[in-house]
Structure formats: C-alpha cells, structure tokens
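We close this part of the discussion by returning to an individual protein. The amino acid sequence and the backbone structure tokens for this protein are reproduced below:
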Amino acid sequence: MKDTKGNLAMRKNEIVKELEKIGLQAEWQTVNKNGVLHTGIVIVSQVGKVAPIIYTDGLVKDTDSLDMAVNKILAQYQKVRSTSIDADKITSRDYVLEHITIAVQKDGIEKIVKRESGLDGIEAYLVVMDSSFEDGNMSMKVTANLLLKACISEPEAWKRAEQNLHKSVRIQSMAEVMTEIMGEEFVELCGVDDRMYIISNKSKIKGASAILDKETMEEFAKQHNTKRIAVLPSSVHEMLLVPETSIFDEEALSNMVRDVNTSEVVPEERLTDRAYILNF
C-alpha cells in the first residue's frame, strides 16, 4: 500500500481499491441528515452482508496516510459489522413491511418518499428501522426505487407505516423520564414540571413522528380533558407535550424551543424553532 497523503475527496477511489484487495466492496455516499450533509462509506462483505454506513467526517483526516485512512475505516467496520444485514433481505417485501415506519425532519429537497406533516416547516418521510441488533439500530430512508424493488405501492407503504408507528408510540411524563435517568431522590429534590410529557417511539430513535399518530393524540387530549395541546419539537427523536396550554403562550413556548435548539441540540437533529398548538 502506498503511503500517500492528500485530500480525502481525491483519495476515495484509492481507499475503495484497497478495501477490494481484502474482499470488501465499498461505495462512498453523501448522506443528508435533516439538511446536514455527511460523507460516509458503505461496505459489503464477500457474502453479501451490508454493514451500517461508516461516517468519515472527523474520522479520516486529510493529513492521514492512505494506510492510516484505510485502517481507521477497517477499525470502525469491525465495530459495526455485527449489525450487518443481508443485502437482499433489506429490500424484500416482508422485511420492508415489517420495519417501515414514519419519521420527521425539516422540510428539504431529498428525493425520498415523503409528505406534509401538518406542522409548518416539518415533513414526514418513510423509513425502514430495525432495532433488533444488539449493538445498535439500522435505519434507511425509503425511496421510490426501494418500494419498486420490494413490490410495494406507495399507498400500501404509508398505510403499513402508520400502523407500525401507532404500535410503537410511547408517552411519559417529564417526571417519569427524569426519575429513570436521575433517580427519584434527585427529582424530588430539584422538582420537575409534571405538566410536561415526552412523546416518542419504543426505541426513542427518530420518535418525534409519534406526534402524527392521531389516535394516540386524541386519546391523550381526552385523558387530560383538553381541546388544545402545545407541542414543542425537542429533536427528531422526541417532542414535548403541554396539555395545559393556558399556562403558557405560544410565543413563550417558541422561545423555549429556540433556546434549547441553540444550546443543546445538534444541527442534524433539530426540527423547527417554534412551538405548535394542536386543536381537538
């Protein structure tokens, strides 16, 4: 292996060739994560197993030699290969229908299967998610080409995704969540606003879309005897619910969302800098 250095973009083909020498097929991809672009490499083994994408931003430096760049990628591949999945399986009809669900992100121009969410500035899209792996989760945005390979129409895909989403929705009070994280004594000592709730999915990955499950939201409003619920986009993984909207005004809630986004949420996980009021 030549000990060359240079810009990663110029060495991509060299890295792929080095991986091919040890029986690994590799393909570079630019991934759009909620409007933030990331560079990554997908590796397929000789037996057709696809490993999760390895993001090279911050992993491989321009100053790295070719040997060092390849070794860094291989080291990361060893960490994620246990979550590899058969290339044919992830495009099969049964697998897609079992794992398809809905996620949300900021409005964008990606060529994926998506639609309006009903929340200004936020779009809903289809994603295949598998949380059965011991070392992590697999997710793949759904394209028209994937549905074609799986022999699934778009209406059928959305219908099954809505059903799968409904089964995965979870709502917990803020106090309950903080108790799980910090312990009951800490919550009692510091106090937690018990008027706020967190809505997400079972895996708590890309769970902000749970807000789109109408049946769950209508039942939540009924339980709290309210016709109005304030919704605060916390991240792409969860949203906050405030059933007692008379306590806050929409502007104050939006300021809260904006402040948290600026200080706590990474760009690829941010939704919008505003709150929403849902009427039932």
